[in-house]
Amino acid sequence: MKILVLNGPNLNMLGIREPAIYGKQDYHALEAYCREACRDLGESIPGGIDCEIYQSNHEGDLVDRIQQAYFDKVDGIVINPAAYTHTSVAIMDALKAVSIPAVEVHLSNIDEREEFRHISYAGKACVKSFMGYGFEGYRKAVEYLIHGD
Ligand code: DQA
């Protein structure tokens, strides 16, 4: 099973940016966490999980990577579009275009933050959202892609 983990703008600044909201661990720790989650959860699947992780600060790069996932025959996408969550019709359309099951993740609970964070365009193209669980949300997302509810 192939899983693509996509992270949007400023997530590369984890550990530095607003640690009271996003925690003290850096982006490398998040990558390591996702790899370990895929390794562990992959033990329940024949062939395990082939996990690719990509971060970009640029909307078009994220759209390109979502489109590429179609040609790479990716089975599931875990996406934290970060600030593009609240603005990007292009990312939502790309997710719809490839028809790959996608799960939205946010480290913080966007529904309990500023009003402008309450709208999620990407979420409209996702089968499930996990928010406010910190890194653990990524594990829950992979688990959901494998087993569903
Ligand atoms: C975020 C929430 C977004 O509102 C914000 O712009 C981010 C991170 C989260 O993981 O909590 O950059 O997606």
* Number of DSSP helical runs: 5
CATH topology: Rossmann fold
Number of domains: 1
Give the beta-strand count: 5
What global shape is seen?
A: globular
Give the name of the CATH superfamily: Dehydroquinase, class II
Largest sheet: 5 strands, parallel
SSE sequence, one letter per element: EHHEHEHEEH
What does the radius of gyration come to?
14 Å
Describe the protein.
This protein has 149 residues and is an alpha/beta fold. The protein has five helices and five strands; from the N terminus they run E-H-H-E-H-E-H-E-E-H. Strands 2-1-3-4-5 form a five-stranded parallel sheet, sandwiched between helices. It is globular. The mean pLDDT is 98. The protein binds 1,3,4-trihydroxy-5-OXO-cyclohexanecarboxylic acid. The site of 1,3,4-trihydroxy-5-OXO-cyclohexanecarboxylic acid has 10 residues, from loops.
Q: Can I get a quick summary?
A:
The protein has 149 residues and is α/β, with parallel strands linked by helices. It contains five helices and five strands.
Topology (elements, then pairings):
Elements: E1 2-7, H1 19-22, H2 27-42, E2 50-55, H3 59-71, E3 76-80, H4 89-98, E4 102-106, E5 128-131, H5 136-147
Parallel strand pairs: 1-2, 1-3, 3-4, 4-5
Helix pairs in contact: 2-5, 3-4
The structure holds 1,3,4-trihydroxy-5-OXO-cyclohexanecarboxylic acid.
